[in-house]
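pasting for ref
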Amino acid sequence: MNNKLVYEDMINEVTTLEDINEDFILKIINNLSIKEKIMLKLQGSLEIGKILIYGWKNRLPFYLFKCPDHGYQINYLSGHYMSLHCPKCLHQKAQTTELSLEPPMTEIKIEA
């Protein structure tokens, strides 16, 4: 079954980035098929579907991935290299440093 469709009900509940919390991530993880778990392990990330956040013009694909520091996280591709950045790492970095041009602490690149 297409993983984009499996999570449609859960994804439709998301309207802000704050909705993507630990409970939401656990629901997604608990509903992964064996095939999806293998894909996640081999690829390092798994597209869970396209989400429209309030105020955005278009839906963006969101991915489940594992941060070495914070475990499983969900985010969208961003930056010049279209990488996945751990939201918790970014939040920690913003709290401890001034805004800078340094790359985020944890970055996972998606190979096309």
